[in-house]
Amino acid sequence: MNPLSEQHILKSRNQIKSIVLLGVTTFVLALIAMGQGPYEKLDIWTTAKMIFGFETPTSTEHSIIWRIRFPRILMAIVGGVALATAGALMQGCLGNPLVSPLTLGVASGAALGAAVAIMLGFSIIGGPLAIIGNAFLFALIVVFIIIQLGSTHSVSAESYILVGIAITFIAGAITSVLNYFATDEQVSQLMHWSFGSLGRVDRDTALFLTIPVVFLVPLALKWSWDLNALSVGGDEFAISTGVNPAGFRKIVLVFSALLTALVISFTGLIGFVGLAAPHMARVIVGNDFRKLIPSSAIFGAFLMLFADTLGRTLFAPIIIPVGVMLSVIGGPFFMYLLIRSKGR
Hints:
Elements lengths: L2 H33 L8 H8 L7 H36 L11 H15 L9 H21 L6 H24 L3 H12 L7 H17 L4 H17 L4 H23 L5 H13 L3 H25 L8 H22 L1
Helix pairs in contact: 1-2, 1-3, 1-12, 3-8, 3-9, 3-10, 3-11, 3-12, 4-5, 4-6, 4-7, 4-10, 5-10, 8-10, 11-12, 12-13
């Protein structure tokens, strides 16, 4: 066998082993998280025996594990997978390492929609889903802006980033004005959305969101070859392989934005997962999107779960929202990317 082929096979095997190891680590972290919290602490072995039916929990333990912690952990995993996948797709189709659902303005648009529902009482639907519905609507408005931008054949990758920055600033400014005139109760609700939290997600919501994410994320793999063409040779090479860069970017960005809106409409403003997870995955598997997309999804689940578990246990019984923890982790990482990009 050709030595280069042997080296490639060995490298691929090592990459697959790293992905599997990361998946196992995430599963172990989920078991640890199920046993940790301000009310009841269990070691990983006791938690595992209770979950898999080898030990019968008390009614209190059953309620804490399955009604309080399980929805939160499931939402952390599902949300991390969705946001990281969206980030990997956005970075791939635009060819810029600073792109993420946060920097393109989708997350800020959803947060603005929630603020409008809380402060002004305007929503497309009523009842308990009013805030969620409005957040999703405003995220779709950002998607519409992205679609219109993608319809311009002369659009560049940098234009998407500039528009996303502009949307983020505008949405943030309007949200700040609404926050200024808010009552104490409204401020509390606005904080939930601006910080990003998993505390209000129940089991039905977590299971409801799992279904579309499990269906949508594997669909992203069908764009792996097109994303590889864009990342390897740019627009000209992609055109030579039969890819329409402008049209392809439009489709991928809309898909990614909808995947993002699906999560943050329930959790509030959560950033940096879509930015950091693809970069961490790239260190292990390189730029091949056939491996980068699934490994980014696993990294996203691990990051979100790690940040939420740390926020629940670091200063227990005080719970730090996952969005705050991710900002603490992601802020320095974002600065590192800026410095490295400037160096290039």
